[in-house]
Design a protein that fits this description.
The complex is a heterodimer of chains A (473) and B (68). Chain A has 473 residues and is an alpha/beta fold. Chain A has 14 helices and 15 strands. Helices cover 50% and strands 0% of the residues of chain B. Classes of the chains: A alpha/beta (473), B mainly alpha (68).
């Protein structure tokens, strides 16, 4: 299918809908056609909300005809299927949740995007209950990587990465507890933002691990990522972890280096030397930033390895506690790959959990000290490009370890202490190969710094996200 | 180094504690659950090797966003 209209830029769609060159309905019809055609190949969508979307498109076209301008006018988007959608069951990648009641209202982030003119078109595949880095789901099938459908999309926001890479929608929402936005962003070659813990409200989303869960946007370029992020900001009392702060609207500058951000490469735990593709991506970023006169150095994030261990234990215990009743009554209804980890989580000693939370606080304090010396930290996102579907193990520092638990090796220590981070896809080679990303990390509440550096890298051409070659570019 | 968990036996832990805690684990699943317990134990070993100040244990075991 070649339509001449691709979904690599939400901003461009909104501009054309606001300007009257396109109607929201025509954009939506094209989107639905792309989803129908491409979803057979990648299995990114688990539900399409055509009627609802057509109603919203009609509302947008009416508003534009009445002279209104909307920042996301007519922009189709889709959400990981752990977001509540009014009158739909929030399945969260599970079979068990199918017997739940439909949601009585939309998740607040959906409401905020739609109030700015966006159109929700569907729900996206994910790992069961978000406990996954691979994109393999026993109930709804494997979500395939559009860059090579024999390879993993990454998870747990698998559909959120694959739907973008296949050009089905220009913006998706995901969740990230240990790397579930950043891993699929890296493997599918998209930009993804995991904001500071407590920034975007999680009201109306199905939890995985309360003290680590974040929500955020994914997109093909930094402008769209920023637009979606800005549109979703603001306190909501429906999420007990949401911090009551004023919105901090990010404005990307096109001129070079408005402020002297100090950039450092994360060393030690984050050393990418054993992983040639990840190393090459990091090296290219550093070369580009030095060419832009950014002061660059190398730093150690103290306790990063312990931070990862803390995240592992906390995730295991909190998620198992949440699912305990289902594990006792309906164990056979779980995906075996998640069930056995949840069961282990039910049995962990309390001393491990309290130790993990204490280490996490110590690590957070240590990181605060690091951010007195630097503003932005660059680290690998994933050790490798997308593994093949079904691959069980990978080499990590000379040891064979499980893929499912270790694709988030570099992402877990960052979300453990809630730091904001953008995963940026790096253009390493010919535009046909599987992608890989890097993490751009900042101090708490400094999403603007992550986005600014990502934008600079995009402007230089080092970072960039394309629709995969076999799809409608 | 204070490491009380170093003698952890995942298989024994499971067989002793799963019934006590009311967690039914069929024999065919035990192997994978034990493997996950061993993985968690390896993570706990790293945590107990960290020297941290005692005042952190005076805090409730929850996470507070920084700079709030």
């Amino acid at each position: 299918m070649s339509t001449g209209q691709n979904f690599s830029s939400a901003s461009r769609i909104a501009e054309q809908v606001n300007g009257g060159q396109l109607s929201a309905k025509s954009v939506l019809d094209l989107c639905l056609a792309k989803v129908t055609q491409y979803n057979k190949k990648v299995n990114a969508f688990t539900a399409v909300f055509e009627q609802r979307a057509q109603k919203q498109a009609k509302r947008i076209d009416k508003a534009i005809a009445a002279g209104k301008q909307l920042p996301l006018a007519g922009v189709p988007f889709a959400v990981k299927n752990l977001f509540d959608v009014h009158d739909e069951i929030t399945i969260a990648g599970s079979k068990i949740n199918r017997s739940n009641q439909p949601a009585h209202e939309d998740a607040i982030l959906i409401t905020r995007l739609e109030s700015r003119g966006a159109i929700l078109v569907g729900a996206l595949n994910m790992g069961e209950y978000a406990y996954d880095f691979t994109g393999e789901n026993a109930h709804y099938g494997v979500c395939r990587n559009p860059w090579n459908i024999e390879h993993m999309s990454g998870g747990s926001s698998s559909g959120s990465g694959a739907a973008l890479a296949a050009g089905m929608v220009p913006i998706t929402l995901g969740s990230d507890t240990n790397g579930s936005i950043r891993v699929p962003s890296s493997l599918c070659g998209t930009f993804g933002l995991k904001p500071t813990y407590g920034r975007l409200p999680r009201s109306g989303s199905y939890p995985f691990c309360d003290s680590l869960d974040h929500l955020g946007p994914m997109a093909h370029n930094v402008e769209d990522l920023t637009l979606a992020y800005n549109s979703m900001q603001g306190f909501d009392s429906g999420d007990h972890a949401c911090v009551n702060r004023a919105k901090e609207i990010v404005s990307l500058t096109t001129s070079r280096r408005q402020s002297k951000l100090r950039v450092a490469l994360a060393a030690d735990y984050f050393d990418a030397s054993p992983f040639p593709d990840a190393k090459q991506a990091i090296d290219q970023v550093l070369v580009a930033l030095r060419a832009l006169d950014y002061p660059t150095s190398s730093i150690t994030l103290p306790l990063a390895e312990a931070g990862r261990s803390a995240a592992f234990i906390i995730t295991n215990v909190e998620s198992a506690a949440f699912h305990r009743a289902r594990l006792i009554a309906q164990a056979d209804q779980f995906d075996p790959a998640t069930r056995d980890r949840f069961l282990a989580g039910c049995l962990l000693p309390a001393a491990w959990y309290t130790r993990a939370q204490a280490v996490r606080q110590a690590y957070a304090r240590a990181a605060q000290g690091v951010f007195e010396q630097v503003d932005v930290i660059i680290a690998p996102a994933t050790p490798y490009r997308a593994p093949r579907i079904g691959q069980q193990s990978m080499n990590l520092a000379g040891r064979e370890v499980g893929v499912r638990a270790n694709l988030g090796y570099f992402t877990q220590p960052i979300s453990c202490i809630g730091l904001p981070v953008v995963c940026a896809p790096i253009k390493l080679d010919a535009n046909e190969n599987l992608p890989i990303g890097v993490q751009i990390i900042a101090a708490p509440w400094r999403e603007a710094d992550c986005l600014q550096i990502a934008h600079e890298l995009q402007t230089t051409g080092i970072a960039g996200s394309d629709i995969a070659p076999d799809f409608d570019r | 180094m204070n490491n009380p968990s170093s003698k952890f036996d995942a298989g024994l832990w499971l067989s002793n504690n799963a019934p006590q805690l009311g967690i039914p684990i069929p024999p065919e699943q035990e192997k994978m659950v034990v493997a996950n317990l061993e993985l968690a134990h390896a993570m706990a070993e790293i945590l107990f090797a960290v020297d941290i100040e005692e005042d952190l244990f005076a805090l409730a075991p929850t996470f507070t966003p920084l700079n709030t």
